[in-house]
Amino acid sequence: MKRIGVLTSGGDAPGMNAAVRAVVRCGLDRGMEVYGIQRGYEGLIDGAIKEMDMSSVGDILHRGGTILRTARSERFKTEEGQKHAINVLSAFGIEGIVVIGGDGSFRGGLELSQRGITVMGLPGTIDNDLGYTDFTIGFDTAVNTVLSAVSNIRDTSSSHERATVIEVMGRHCGDIALYAGLTGGADNILVPEMPFDINKVCRKIIQGKNRGKMHDIIMKAEGVGVDAKELAQLVEEKTGKETRVVILAYLQRGGSPTAKDRMLASRTASKAVELLYDDESSKAIGICGSEIVAYDLEKALTIKRPFNADLYHLADVLSK
Amino acid sequence: MKRIGVLTSGGDAPGMNAAVRAVVRCGLDRGMEVYGIQRGYEGLIDGAIKEMDMSSVGDILHRGGTILRTARSERFKTEEGQKHAINVLSAFGIEGIVVIGGDGSFRGGLELSQRGITVMGLPGTIDNDLGYTDFTIGFDTAVNTVLSAVSNIRDTSSSHERATVIEVMGRHCGDIALYAGLTGGADNILVPEMPFDINKVCRKIIQGKNRGKMHDIIMKAEGVGVDAKELAQLVEEKTGKETRVVILAYLQRGGSPTAKDRMLASRTASKAVELLYDDESSKAIGICGSEIVAYDLEKALTIKRPFNADLYHLADVLSK
Amino acid sequence: MKRIGVLTSGGDAPGMNAAVRAVVRCGLDRGMEVYGIQRGYEGLIDGAIKEMDMSSVGDILHRGGTILRTARSERFKTEEGQKHAINVLSAFGIEGIVVIGGDGSFRGGLELSQRGITVMGLPGTIDNDLGYTDFTIGFDTAVNTVLSAVSNIRDTSSSHERATVIEVMGRHCGDIALYAGLTGGADNILVPEMPFDINKVCRKIIQGKNRGKMHDIIMKAEGVGVDAKELAQLVEEKTGKETRVVILAYLQRGGSPTAKDRMLASRTASKAVELLYDDESSKAIGICGSEIVAYDLEKALTIKRPFNADLYHLADVLSK
Amino acid sequence: MKRIGVLTSGGDAPGMNAAVRAVVRCGLDRGMEVYGIQRGYEGLIDGAIKEMDMSSVGDILHRGGTILRTARSERFKTEEGQKHAINVLSAFGIEGIVVIGGDGSFRGGLELSQRGITVMGLPGTIDNDLGYTDFTIGFDTAVNTVLSAVSNIRDTSSSHERATVIEVMGRHCGDIALYAGLTGGADNILVPEMPFDINKVCRKIIQGKNRGKMHDIIMKAEGVGVDAKELAQLVEEKTGKETRVVILAYLQRGGSPTAKDRMLASRTASKAVELLYDDESSKAIGICGSEIVAYDLEKALTIKRPFNADLYHLADVLSK
What we know:
Chain A has 320 residues and is α/β, with parallel strands linked by helices. Chain A has helices at 16-29, 40-46, 79-92, 103-114, 139-159, 175-184, 198-210, 228-239, 259-277, 297-300, 309-318; strands at residues 3-8, 33-37, 49-52, 96-101, 118-123, 163-168, 188-190, 216-221, 243-247, 283-288, 291-296.
């Protein structure tokens, strides 16, 4: 393959720029032409496409967000939009594209793939909710961002001997809450994958109080079926401990990517370019253990993500 | 004076530990005994008081929060509570105390002062809402914490070409919003001191959009009379630009204090100890320009804080 | 096993506290008694040992360094020292210990193991130089610390259009240089595992210059056989580009551990306690892919670490 | 005045971009044309000058370094070079320029001023060594950068019970060492303005050791007449305490500017533009207390900077 494109789609994630940079530079290194597609599938339909060279990805490795910008596209969900996208790609002579995004972006890529474009998917989402890969690009940065918020909140929470509910991202997948909760020393971790038991939560807080613990942190994924403010009230009523709420929201989306995310982005992007160069069929690239792996794109979307119950249990033991 | 106490009261602020450390070490250096009073006026009433030495304030200079802990005390608002506090102090032979806190804590100190205890007030609050001092301990840290949040939000906000409303602390005083807004490049700054004009806000966003600006940040103090979510909706309707909300809340209270806050804390604390040593009457210590200043405690509470309209105007010019 | 000890030995690493915390809490959770041994094998010989409870490891998860302190022990290298250590352990009734450290610390543990004490080794070193585990505790933090230094240096280096030699830790293992170099966008990476070619270094700098690159970063592991200052001079002579040197030294040793290091520390510590509880023989615990693994302690020390040539090549492609 | 220029010169400092941005936007707001001059006086001589608009300074407020780049110019020291610079300026119709830099840059500006160009100097240097202003742009960021290095070093230094010599910038002015030393809790602060007494240094370390202090930090300005390595050896010999050296070097030059530096840069730049607009004569702009002040450029260079002996003494008391 001689001419490829790259786009970022869906919610942005730290490390997307590192991935774009690696796609461009690995592509050029193999003598391919690389085109940057703006604003995901929206820009693809609009033909917002321009050729990239070495310097067009200079000085972006350490930046959060994505220089290609990103968007969610309603038009691309229609058959007409998809046909239009195909026409644009053929007009540019682009035979294959690298799609950096999450679940929805991959489904979009599958549509293109079924219309004859080779699509390599890179897992670009902070949510770590893709089943075929151990980790997604942006997850490690998001978890570390939550950790630094936790350390700020711990200061003030201890000074006032308060409990704090920290709500983090994760509608269906509780990994941000699980990883940040375990590594942040949260006393309680609430994830969508596990039943929510207010009494268990309060029990631990009361036990901690009796042990002289000054602060309590309840790490809650947004997907858990209880409103953060209501949860705080319940806790206050049942434990008698003043309880506050912090919703981290979009803070978790930005920031300079960590080494781990830059590495994952660089390695998966390099693999995607290699597969395009070898004219392989559409794949989803990810990491399994230390190995970069590639699954058939359609199959990858069917792989369910197992919840890591061992970590959940370990977190519980460590915060007893 | 040979025996003094120190307490932190009201909302905690980064730098309170630096102040406690300086009170203890400067006191000991002058041959005084220094007692730490736990949980503000609550602990004072309870007699939760212990003598401090050099090492009891070791390794705290860089920590957020306050090792003495803090609280708001209802009991101390009663005459009975205040009398009780006086008895405790005389039982310990403590003739003067350093109170690190905000407006309310100083009023509490005034009550003790009128009952014969010398009280030196240090401005410990992130809000920068004390009229007699240019800056308060914790303000600089809070502003820098907001700045790092802004830089995270800028990443994702640019990638999605969104506007974001960032709500920061400040019920009556908009300084956090003003300083973080100006230095964070916010397009709009909303503070309680100035009238809120939704049309002016939207005008700037639309102008920025036409100029190709990718992100817009609206820095809003909590004291401004409009709900953050409602504001976001209004902006979205009037500008057609997707708008999100982030409420930083207690994040702003924690974190390792900046050099400026540690310096302010150390210098004001040293001054407070000097004044106690010299048996001066109750004072509020602050900074004016580069000078550490001390006003009569009662008088200090009457000084109104002028809003810095020049900075507000400059911020407007810089973000045009 | 009912009574265990834990010590940190050799150079400290961020995450050692997270490991100590997990050893203590997992041990208590299994009904074991856990003793903290101060200053590594030095403190063991001196009997500087005290029992730990839940709170003795409170509020340390996020701290760099090690609350148990660490040291290199000459005395322990002697047979007499080792015998003495065994006597101390039996006096305390400690049947097994967790040793958190690097290569040398594990060899020390092996001596105890051969004298009848069960020893579980956790990989605590920033150098990532243990062959039996993919990663060591502290490595991820060190790499991210180097990244933030790189971003500071990039600012000034670009402003002056300079090259900068950054020397990082790694006498025999170049992983810090390799990972920080690849993820920091270094133009050249010098590691002990690969031959040093001054001409290749200068070639890339000259090419970058011609491409309009403003800054160049040469990431050098200390183990590479050329003095950093001499290297800078050579580069300046051969490329005509002003070249500076920064030696990060002990900066890389400290800092709050990253989520990845806290997780690795918590998981390996939990495994070590489980193995002690099950009266397993001495082991070295590590991570392989996503799995926590345990090798026979003696065997683990014989496993050579392969250099990751793929990453080295990828870094070269990305910085071309 | 209708057409002005702006350049950054000498060593770069965090906040220079904030100053450039404010010069451009305040200038445009007053209806002036603003030209950016590349690489300081070098670019001025070369005519590397281009007009700036609102967007040419977008997204730079938070970046370290300077987008205009900077250099030291030998050519500009010659009369010929200066004449040439004047010709370039008149060819572009530029009547006044804002020079952002230190002492040397101001002297260069004075030459232009004496040849009929109005020059407004902004204090852009991390060294805080300009006598006419309380603070320079970049100083606060540099001090905070040193503080975060101190906190990393404290971790490892405590774990090993070591002393560490930290060498910071400052050839003639010890302010970085003084401010970072006081606010970082250094046990000893060595500045060029005060005599160096090895015995006093060791006395404090020995006293700290006897008080159970685990780490010692010696904050040394580079201008102090003793080599850092030799100092460490001396300390080790005289105190028996293992002593390490860290030289922060160019780390101190980079990093995202703090709120304080961005504010100082914005306010002084706004003042400079106002003075140019009002056709005032050449001035040096600075801050005195909270007020932005402007001195005659030539006079400003004659003002000596007094050493702050009170802070030096306070630091000593706090670390006793």
